[in-house]
Every structure is written in C-alpha cells, then in structure tokens.
Amino acid sequence: MAASKLDRTPSIRERVEDTLHAHRNELVALLSKYVSKGKGILQPHRILDTLDEVQVSGGSAFAEGPFLDVLRSSQEAIVLPPFVAIAVRPRPGVWEYVRVNVHELNVEQLSVSEYLRFKEELVDGQHKDPYVLELDFEPFTALIPRPSRSSSIGNGVQFLNRHLSSILFRNRDCLEPLLDFLREHRHKGHVMMLNDRVQSVGRLQSVLTKAEEHLSKLPSETPYSQFSNQFQEWGLEKGWGDTTEHVLEMIHLLLDILQAPDPSTLETFLGRIPMIFNVVIVSPHGYFGQANVLGMPDTGGQIVYILDQVRALEDEMVLRLKKQGLDVTPKIIMLLD
User: Fold this and answer.
1) Quick one: how many helices (H) and strands (E) in the chain?
2) In which element (H, E) is residue 280 found?
C-alpha cells in the first residue's frame, strides 16, 4: 500500500508560474495592462479593477483558481516597467513577494529587503548603496507566539496577555521572570517596584499581604510619602501609586495574578507599571521645520496638529507618572522631515 503523501501548499511564485503555463495569454494581457499605466504603486482595488477589465474584454480565465487568490491577497503592486512586483499576504503574519518580468515572463521570489529596494527605485532609480537603513519589526525571539486568526489583528496586547497568563497558570515557576522584572525595573539608576529584600515569589506574596493589612488601616488619600519608609524596609519601592488607594489597587492586582493569573488582570497590572518616560515622535512628511516653505499647503495645519498632540501626550504622561507615585518629568523628542 502506498504511503499517503501530505499536500504542500504551493508558494506564491509557484502559483504565478502555474498560471503562466495554464493561461499564458490572459496573464500577459493582465500584466501588460498594469505596465501600461506606467511606473507607480497599485492599491488592492486597482489590482482587482484591472483584472475585471481584462476579464470583460478577454474572457474569464481567472474567474476561479489559485492566481485569483493571489490577487485577492495582494496588498500592493509595484510597477516599474517591464517589472511588476506584488506583495501578497495570504494569511495573518505571513508575507510573500514576487516579481514578474512582463517581457521575458520569468517569475522570481523576493526577500523583504529585495522588495523594498525595488520599491525605492520608483523614486531613486537604480540604487546601489549597500548601506540602507532597515527597521525590522519582527519579534526579537521565535518564542513569541504569532496570531493566526484575523480577529487577533489590532489586539496584540490582549493576545500576548492571554498567552502569558495561560503559561503562568499552568506553571508556577514561570512567575519567577515576573519577579525578576519587578526587581530589576529602574529609571536612571533608581530602583522601582521591588528591591533586593524580595528574593522569591513566596517572599513577595508575604510582603504584599503585610502591606495590604497595613494600608487597610489608613485613609484612602494618604500620600505614599507617609508610609514609603516602611515599604522600603519590606522591599517595596516607588512605582506602586501616589496614595493608599492607588497602591492598594496595584497590590490587589498582583496578589490576584500570583494566586490565579487571568488576561484581564495581567493587562491592567502591566499597564500601570511605570515604564514609559521618553517618547520619540517621527513625522516623515510635510514641510514642518524646512526652509522656504512658507505658504505651502498644510504647513500651518501640520504644525498645529503635531504640537497639540505633543502637548496632550505630555500632559497624559505627567498625570500617569504622578498617579504611579513618581516625580519624573517625561521627555518627548520630535523628529520631523
């Protein structure tokens, strides 16, 4: 009996090549239509609209099939005659890039860097500089889970918190990294959250319970400064809150996490830990800060918008840091092109 063979999903390049073999004339007509528009970037709706035009005039070879799936998953097409490069996102977190020479009808798979370099040629022409700035937003480690459902897109924090809380729930030893994070958390050399007197998760639970009992006897608006010395002796540093009420909320959250982790509690607790003190705002468009641009469109509007956003962001950061019990002035830097 022959062993069953697992079907392998063909790559985007293979799908395009298969379509070239099966529907050569139709595909050439479609790609030629893209090239006839001149160099530029085609958005998804333009890609599909052009397909509809070709189908109306020359039949419906692409009515169904793998190449239609490729076009439906396309996020953009770069046209630089005689080449057409397509960025395809077949599923969340997965991208493939192909380039077709319309004259020679050869198909090649591109890496991310190759695709971006080709895209830059729209503006710079042939660019031979080997030292090009690249910003890689991929996870730093392969251990970070990847969302596989579209519903997780835009909800990355919730996705990671669900994953992390499930690990903490299954394995109590995984609480040690959380303890290490709280002990090593610093700002400009100043220790925050926990000091070296808390050496274990068990000790942390004991200290938090003791602090909870102590704070329950104080008025809710008691400032942190009135019990900071006692907290420091137990191993608790600044960052828990500015009043008894806010500190108790943080302590209750962490005690709940240590007892039975859940995504909502974990998200709330991590969101209240003081971690953001400096922000860089990049505005890579417009005429802000450039010479000889007075009277250019949107110049004034962009200046007002950016400065208003910076002011609002600074006010929010100051308020949050104050509620976290810190006397820290945030720093915001604007990089404008």
Assistant:
1) 12, 9
2) strand 278-283
pTM above 0.70, yes or no: no
Asked whether 231 and 266 are in contact (CB, 8 A), the reply is no
- 3 state SS of 266: helix
Q: How far apart are CA 136 and CA 139, in angstroms?
A: 9
Read off the pLDDT of residues 208-222 as tens digits, 9 standing for 90 and up: 999 999 999 999 999
**Which CATH architecture fits 12-124?**
Roll (3.10)
Query: Fold for domain 157-272?
Result: Four Helix Bundle (Hemerythrin (Met), subunit A) (1.20.120)
Provide the residue ranges of all domains of the chain, joining segments of one domain with +.
12-124, 157-272, 278-336
Distance from C-alpha of 19 to C-alpha of 25, rounded to nearest angstrom? 10
Digit-coded pLDDT (tens) for 126-171: 766 777 777 777 766 666 777 777 777 777 778 888 888 888 877 7
**Ramachandran assignment for 98, one of left (phi > 0), alpha (psi -120 to 50 degrees), beta (any other):** beta
Structure-token pair, residue 161: 């918190």
Coil vs helix vs strand at 100: strand
* Residues in CB range of 286: below 8 A, 6 or more apart: 298, 299, 302, 336, 337
Neighbouring C-beta atoms of residue 193, cutoff 10 Å: 21
Answer positive or negative: Cα dihedral of 233, 234, 240, 244: negative
- Give residue 150's identity as a one-letter amino acid code: S
pLDDT of 10 reads: 77
